[in-house]
Amino acid sequence: MVSSASYEARAFGVYASMPLVKARQLCPQAIFIKGNMKLYQEVSYEFMDILSSFSPCIEPVGLDEAFLDVSGYEQPFGSYYLMAMNIKERVSKEIDLVASVGIAGCKVVAKIASALCKPDGLLEIANGEERCFLAPFPVVKLPGVGKKTEKILKNLSINTIYELASAQPDVLEKYLGSPGLLLYSYANGVDNRKVESPGRSESISKECTFSRDTRDRHFLDACLHNLCDEVSMEMRFQKRRAKCITLKVRYADFETISRQVTSKGGSNISRVIYIIARQLLDKALLERRKPIRLLGVKASGLLDRDQQYCMLDSAGQKWESLDRAIDKIRIKYGTTSIKSGSDISAY
Questions:
Q1: C-alpha distances out from residue 30 to 34, 97, 188, 270, Å
Q2: Residue 331, phi-psi category: left (phi > 0), alpha (psi -120 to 50), beta (remainder)
Q3: Residue 207 known to be catalytic
Q4: Which residue did the predictor score with more confidence, 317 or 302?
Q5: CA-CA distances (angstroms) from residue 253 to 173, 209, 236, 249, 278?
Q6: How confident is the model over 37-52, as pLDDT tens digits?
Q7: Do 293 and 284 meet the contact criterion of CB atoms below 8 Å apart?
Q8: Given the residues 46, 59, 65, 287, the one annotated as active site
Q9: Is the pLDDT of residue 154 over 60?
Q10: pTM for this structure?
Q11: pLDDT at position 177, please?
Q12: What are the chain's domains?
């Protein structure tokens, strides 16, 4: 599937979630690049750090987007517009990326403004101008309007946001339920949602579906090592450690099992996580002698990393120091700059 498409590819009708076969048919001259989620996550952390330096009230939306409530924090810059310019400059200078910024008094209008000025723009909607700004756009521009909702609105002769804003609320509620009233508010430039920082995640998990079912132990160990490395690195970025490690296995016949180990102290050391997961994989392979379609690793029972404990042995401090050194290299030179020899079979 297409994970993301450049603006040039989108002009040919290519979009995210489209099958690769169809994308190649629509745009045979396109260049297809394998994704690198580790790298995206690392850059995302840097991006969010930049944003959080402008306001502590930040609500991330995926890896590369966030809402900021900057009320009162614009004073050192003179205006919200100049503040946004400063954000764009820092993103460009520090992580060599471009960013689009939408400025508005509510989330829905800010999001639409940001989308309209991509990939490297800045658009500010003045207070009181929200309804006028939204009016000419098709209803699909509003968050929450998918194909099904769009069809219902078209049957009501509602095609633009202006027509939606001018509709009778009771009619919208009749055909769309309570979401109809919410869309009516959005169309009028009213969005009372606050910018809310997300709660801390209760678990961190990674999984991989193989292109073909396999029982090749070297390949499975390599994939498992890579998954454990990703999970443990994510924990270290969040300064957390896990008490519980769970292995997920899906077989060729789609039977799915999970096995877990729990300890009191917990760890975020890559080697420790891998050893535990490998022991669980040993048991899974003995229990069912069937080819494997998917492997997954989950860390749960997450604790703040005020002190590091090792689940298995007394050499935890040595492996913790090694992980820190590897993390620094990967942050500076990229996630593929240094890898374990046991990872190679997975590529």
A1: 13, 22, 40, 37
A2: alpha
A3: no
A4: 302
A5: 45, 13, 35, 11, 22
A6: 888 888 998 999 899 8
A7: no
A8: 65
A9: yes
A10: 0.61
A11: 92
A12: 1-33 (3.40.1170.60), 131-187 (1.10.150.20), 203-346 (3.30.1490.100)
